[in-house]
Amino acid sequence: QVQLVESGGGLVQPGGSLRLSCAASGVNFSIYATAWYRQAPGKQRELVATMTSGGRTNYADSVKGRFTISRDNAKNTVYLQMNSLKPEDTAVYYCKVSFMTRDYWGQGTQVTVSS
User: Fold this and answer.
1) Tell me: the pLDDT tens digits for 18-43?
2) Taking all residues of the chain, what is their mean pLDDT, rounded to a whole number?
3) Rounded Cα distance, 64 and 6, in Å
4) In 10 A of CB 102, how many CB atoms?
């Protein structure tokens, strides 16, 4: 049974930082590509950052230079370090792991950026 459990969300002031974690179980994590998505109220889910099994990364233009995706295969965990947060970063953040035709999603964690 595959399970992805996200943590680290919360309320933060503009300019602040958060680190999201997504712990995977039931998969051979090291061979999976990983990604973070987010969905703001009334908007479609959007891709935030990706990291391949080989460590190659890609970011949405809106988060480049502020967010960093990383992974620890020994801990079966993918992270999203978010710095210089803005109110428009407010959303539910989801992690996803993918291998060939298999996609697995976490349940989401709320990030709210507000003063």
Assistant:
1) 999 999 999 999 999 999 999 999 99
2) 97
3) 22
4) 10
Among 103, 89, 99, 101, smallest CA distance to 4 is for 103
CA distance 72 to 76: 6
Looking at residue 50, its pLDDT comes to 98
Question: How far is residue 36's CA from residue 22's CA, in Å, rounded to a whole number?
Answer: 9
Q: What is the pLDDT of residues 61-107, one digit of tens each?
A: 999 999 999 999 999 999 999 999 999 999 999 999 999 999 999 99
DSSP the chain: --EEEEE--EEE-TT--EEEEEEEESS-GGGSEEEEEEE-TTS--EEEEEE-TT--EEE-TTTTTTEEEEEEGGGTEEEEEE-S--GGG-EEEEEEEEETTEEEE---EEEEE--
Tell me which residue has tokens 């999201």. 20
